[in-house]
Amino acid sequence: MVLFIGGLYLVLSRAHALWLLIGAELMLNASAPLLLLAGTSEAIATLFLLLFFALLEAGAALFLFYHFARAHQTLHLENLWAV
After folding, report:
1. Which residue among 30, 33, 60, 66 is buried most deeply as judged by most CB within 10 Å?
2. Alpha helices, DSSP H only, in 1-83?
3. CATH number of the structural domain spanning residue 65
4. Hey, is 16 helix, strand or coil?
């Protein structure tokens, strides 16, 4: 629960794109300890699927952030609407 609340705080309170990504990753991975605690094969398979989608999300977001930063020389999201 603490990981999810921390991720939610980062997503809602920060305007910097990397903090937003870190918050989204924290919220996505907050269920991992509970799935490991369950220990069943379905829970472990769900955890691997969750980690796979977290990897895809992080890769796509970093790709977009890189190109946004090259175009605007910053990662502050206020500049997103000034395009």
Report:
1. 30
2. 2-13, 17-28, 32-38, 41-72
3. 1.10.287.3510
4. strand
